[in-house]
Specification:
The chain is an alpha/beta fold. The chain is 47% helix and 14% strand.
């Protein structure tokens, strides 16, 4: 099966090669870090310290890993930390977030056995921690063969991903069987990975570490900088459209124009749009420019219009979290577009009033916690034609009712506070794994009995 998987991976990459070349030429994607993706990593200078390899896919996982990385370095000061990502945006955020603490930051290797072996030989990790759910068959298999324990942390498995993995039949059981430990966000996530074949003794529900990701000092300074440059203040309420996908930017612009037409407090409102994917920045800039609204973009030099324009395009990476404390309302994107939604915890954690669309299936457990507490507003399923008028009405009602808006924000913050602590639980559960002597890891971690005794110690 592994040979067939590698063959299919090669065929898939060959089929997609024209698209990769197009994206590389137009947006610079995939070119950066190509040698690292092929496993050609520089040897890690860890000073003979044991190395913890922390893998994050993209921006969301990288941000969520911040409290875990801090806690690991405090708990294991004799270890070195290295961080990998898959996406270019994740790499940029990782270098900003972990630049002072990580011994190395690099791109995750393509999942061919030979490229994985190269990477493992260069890094020589004593343990590998994978954020959320990245089940790469060859990577897990080669790690097991070298006796390197691999833990899934802050594990999440959506219903859609679960159904797709189930199509792999017995092969998926072999893949998850190479995990030494899975620390899942919720009972539902744990049940799904258990159904894929993971042994129950290697499985624990630890909670969601994204509840623990508070603002850093650097973000607080950036918030002040943005507030000063764009003159964000209480006199002109700011609506943030976060992590948007097509056609949400068009919907937001139309909703904003309809909102402004209602008068009152809405007449003074401003809109900040932060698209999810950087390669769409210029496309969205063109849409804003044709909207008839005054606007500017974050990447432009400072000018007088920054303080007075209607719309700001946040065409930067890693700065969205710093905007949330300045917002009166945050719409979390990917939720009118049927992509499954994005993280509501970051705006909630700073006491922002949160609105989402109906399609939030990527964050079911989190959304249930917020909805049960009445801590956010979720729109009904809407067509592209219906969405602007509905959104405009919701925004107008919230801006006209300060008490309701503050109540929603307060409840959202309370949900976050009530669910904190997953990071400490995760580190406690990882202690036995990270402290295992090489003699107990065994060749390929095959001695399940010894490992179970160590993990339960």
């Amino acid at each position: 099966m592994y040979l067939l998987y590698s063959l299919l991976l090669t065929i898939g990459l060959a089929v997609l090669l024209p698209r990769f070349l197009y994206d590389a030429l137009r947006h610079g994607k995939y070119v950066e870090g190509l040698r690292e993706r092929l496993g050609q990593l520089p040897n890690i200078d860890a000073g003979r310290r044991p190395v913890i390899w922390l893998h994050c896919v993209s921006v969301g996982e990288t941000q969520a890993a911040r409290p875990l990385a801090r806690a690991l370095l405090e708990e294991f000061p004799s270890h070195a930390l290295v961080v990998s990502t898959i996406t270019r945006t994740g790499q940029g955020v990782a270098r900003e977030v972990f630049g002072q603490d990580a011994a190395a930051i690099f791109y995750f290797p393509f999942d061919w056995a030979w490229s994985v072996r190269r990477a493992l030989s260069a890094v020589k990790p004593s343990a590998i921690l994978i954020m959320e759910t990245e089940l790469w068959p060859n990577f897990l298999r080669e790690s097991r063969r070298r006796g390197i324990p691999v833990a899934l942390v802050n594990g999440r498995l959506s219903e859609g991903s679960f159904r797709r993995y189930k199509l792999l039949g017995r092969f998926i059981a072999r893949i998850v069987g190479d995990l030494s430990l899975a620390l899942m966000q919720s009972d539902q996530d744990a049940g799904r990975i258990r159904a894929l074949g993971l042994a129950p003794e290697r499985l624990t529900v630890s909670g969601n570490m994204k509840f623990d990701a508070g603002a850093s000092v650097d973000e607080e300074e950036l918030s002040r900088e943005l507030a000063a440059r764009f003159r964000f203040d209480k006199e002109r309420p700011l609506i943030v459209a976060a992590s948007t996908h097509a056609p949400e930017e068009r919907i937001m612009l139309e909703a904003f124009k309809r909102l402004r037409a209602t008068g009152g407090a809405a007449l003074l409102a401003r809109l900040l749009i932060a698209p999810r994917h950087p390669e769409r920045f210029n496309e969205i800039a063109a849409s804003i420019d044709s909207s008839g609204l005054s606007w500017t973009r974050r990447s432009s030099p400072s000018s007088e219009r920054d303080a007075t324009c209607d719309v700001i395009l946040l065409d930067s990476i890693g700065e969205l979290r710093a905007v949330y404390p300045l917002a009166s309302i945050v719409f979390v994107g990917g939720s009118i577009a049927q992509t499954g939604g994005h993280n509501v915890l970051e705006p909630a954690a700073v006491g922002a009033c949160v609105v989402t669309g109906a399609h939030t299936f990527n964050f079911t457990a989190i959304m249930n916690a917020f909805l049960e507490a009445g801590a956010l507003l979720q729109l009904p399923p809407l067509s592209e034609e219906e969405a602007p008028s509905h959104l405009a009405r919701v925004f107008a009602e919230l801006l006209a009712d300060d008490e309701r808006r503050r109540a929603l924000a307060g409840k959202a913050l309370a949900v976050v506070e009530q669910n904190r602590g997953a990071t400490n639980r995760t580190v406690a559960l990882l202690k036995p794994l990270l402290s295992l002597p090489a003699s107990e890891k065994g060749p390929g971690l095959r001695d399940d009995a010894a490992r179970s005794r160590a993990l339960s110690a």
